[in-house]
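Before going further, learn to read the protein records used in this course. Taken together, the C-alpha coordinates spell out the fold as the letters spell out the chain. A record is reproduced here so that you can trace the correspondence yourselves:

***
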Amino acid sequence: MKTKLLLIMVMMLTLLAVSACGSDDPPPEQSAAPPTNVILDQSLLVGTWYWADSPYYIFEADGHGVMNPGALESAILWTVEDGILFICTTPDICGSFADCGLTLEWYYTVSGDNLTLDSRNVPGLVLEYIRG
Protein backbone atom coordinates (compact mmCIF):
# COMPACT_ATOMS: atom_id res chain seq x y z
CA MET A 1 0.00 0.00 0.00
CA LYS A 2 2.82 2.42 0.87
CA THR A 3 4.55 1.68 -2.44
CA LYS A 4 1.34 2.34 -4.37
CA LEU A 5 0.79 5.64 -2.55
CA LEU A 6 4.41 6.67 -3.17
CA LEU A 7 4.06 5.81 -6.87
CA ILE A 8 0.89 7.93 -7.12
CA MET A 9 2.67 10.86 -5.44
CA VAL A 10 5.63 10.60 -7.83
CA MET A 11 3.28 10.52 -10.82
CA MET A 12 1.43 13.61 -9.55
CA LEU A 13 4.69 15.52 -9.05
CA THR A 14 5.82 14.51 -12.54
CA LEU A 15 2.56 15.77 -14.04
CA LEU A 16 2.93 19.03 -12.12
CA ALA A 17 6.49 19.51 -13.40
CA VAL A 18 5.50 18.72 -16.98
CA SER A 19 2.53 21.08 -16.87
CA ALA A 20 4.74 23.88 -15.49
CA CYS A 21 7.28 23.44 -18.29
CA GLY A 22 5.70 24.98 -21.32
CA SER A 23 2.14 26.13 -21.70
CA ASP A 24 -0.36 26.50 -24.50
CA ASP A 25 -2.04 29.38 -22.67
CA PRO A 26 -2.02 32.72 -24.47
CA PRO A 27 0.58 35.21 -23.20
CA PRO A 28 -0.59 37.65 -20.53
CA GLU A 29 -1.63 41.16 -21.49
CA GLN A 30 1.49 43.23 -22.00
CA SER A 31 2.40 46.88 -21.82
CA ALA A 32 2.42 48.69 -25.15
CA ALA A 33 6.07 49.76 -25.38
CA PRO A 34 9.26 49.86 -23.34
CA PRO A 35 10.15 53.07 -21.55
CA THR A 36 12.21 55.40 -23.73
CA ASN A 37 15.09 55.55 -21.23
CA VAL A 38 15.84 51.81 -21.20
CA ILE A 39 19.53 51.00 -20.95
CA LEU A 40 20.18 47.88 -23.02
CA ASP A 41 23.52 46.88 -21.48
CA GLN A 42 22.93 43.52 -19.75
CA SER A 43 26.14 43.86 -17.73
CA LEU A 44 24.59 46.74 -15.76
CA LEU A 45 22.26 44.23 -14.10
CA VAL A 46 25.02 41.94 -12.80
CA GLY A 47 25.25 42.06 -9.02
CA THR A 48 22.99 42.06 -5.99
CA TRP A 49 19.83 44.16 -5.92
CA TYR A 50 18.05 45.01 -2.68
CA TRP A 51 14.37 45.55 -2.00
CA ALA A 52 13.16 46.65 1.45
CA ASP A 53 16.70 46.43 2.88
CA SER A 54 17.11 42.77 1.92
CA PRO A 55 18.79 41.22 -1.12
CA TYR A 56 16.14 40.19 -3.63
CA TYR A 57 17.90 39.47 -6.92
CA ILE A 58 21.43 38.25 -7.47
CA PHE A 59 22.23 38.36 -11.20
CA GLU A 60 25.43 36.53 -12.19
CA ALA A 61 27.25 37.39 -15.44
CA ASP A 62 26.64 33.88 -16.84
CA GLY A 63 22.83 34.28 -16.84
CA HIS A 64 22.24 32.37 -13.61
CA GLY A 65 21.17 33.89 -10.35
CA VAL A 66 19.09 33.75 -7.21
CA MET A 67 15.77 35.32 -6.36
CA ASN A 68 14.98 36.09 -2.71
CA PRO A 69 18.23 34.70 -1.21
CA GLY A 70 17.79 33.07 2.17
CA ALA A 71 15.16 30.70 3.48
CA LEU A 72 12.83 31.06 0.46
CA GLU A 73 15.47 31.45 -2.24
CA SER A 74 15.08 30.02 -5.69
CA ALA A 75 17.50 29.63 -8.56
CA ILE A 76 16.79 31.68 -11.68
CA LEU A 77 17.98 32.03 -15.24
CA TRP A 78 17.98 35.51 -16.74
CA THR A 79 18.70 37.28 -19.98
CA VAL A 80 18.00 40.57 -21.70
CA GLU A 81 16.61 40.90 -25.21
CA ASP A 82 15.37 44.06 -26.94
CA GLY A 83 15.28 46.02 -23.69
CA ILE A 84 13.31 43.37 -21.82
CA LEU A 85 14.62 41.44 -18.81
CA PHE A 86 13.45 37.81 -18.85
CA ILE A 87 13.68 35.81 -15.62
CA CYS A 88 12.93 32.07 -15.59
CA THR A 89 11.86 31.13 -12.08
CA THR A 90 11.69 27.37 -12.68
CA PRO A 91 15.14 26.37 -14.04
CA ASP A 92 15.40 23.44 -11.63
CA ILE A 93 12.26 21.96 -13.24
CA CYS A 94 12.61 23.04 -16.85
CA GLY A 95 16.34 23.56 -17.35
CA SER A 96 16.19 26.26 -20.03
CA PHE A 97 14.32 29.33 -21.22
CA ALA A 98 12.84 27.35 -24.09
CA ASP A 99 10.98 25.13 -21.62
CA CYS A 100 10.47 27.62 -18.81
CA GLY A 101 7.06 27.35 -17.20
CA LEU A 102 7.11 30.68 -15.40
CA THR A 103 8.98 33.53 -17.07
CA LEU A 104 8.82 37.00 -15.59
CA GLU A 105 9.17 39.77 -18.17
CA TRP A 106 10.24 43.27 -17.21
CA TYR A 107 11.11 46.51 -18.93
CA TYR A 108 14.09 47.72 -16.96
CA THR A 109 15.92 50.95 -16.30
CA VAL A 110 19.25 51.27 -14.51
CA SER A 111 20.13 54.72 -13.21
CA GLY A 112 23.28 54.72 -11.09
CA ASP A 113 22.61 52.21 -8.32
CA ASN A 114 18.84 52.15 -8.88
CA LEU A 115 16.98 49.50 -10.85
CA THR A 116 13.38 50.02 -11.92
CA LEU A 117 11.40 47.02 -13.18
CA ASP A 118 8.13 47.60 -15.03
CA SER A 119 6.22 44.33 -15.40
CA ARG A 120 5.02 43.08 -18.77
CA ASN A 121 3.15 40.25 -16.99
CA VAL A 122 1.20 42.51 -14.62
CA PRO A 123 0.53 45.90 -16.24
CA GLY A 124 1.09 48.78 -13.83
CA LEU A 125 3.37 46.82 -11.47
CA VAL A 126 6.57 48.84 -11.08
CA LEU A 127 9.24 47.86 -8.54
CA GLU A 128 12.39 49.70 -7.40
CA TYR A 129 15.64 48.07 -6.26
CA ILE A 130 18.99 49.40 -5.00
CA ARG A 131 22.36 47.87 -5.89
CA GLY A 132 24.10 46.31 -2.89
Observations:
- Residues 2-20 form the longest helix (19 residues).
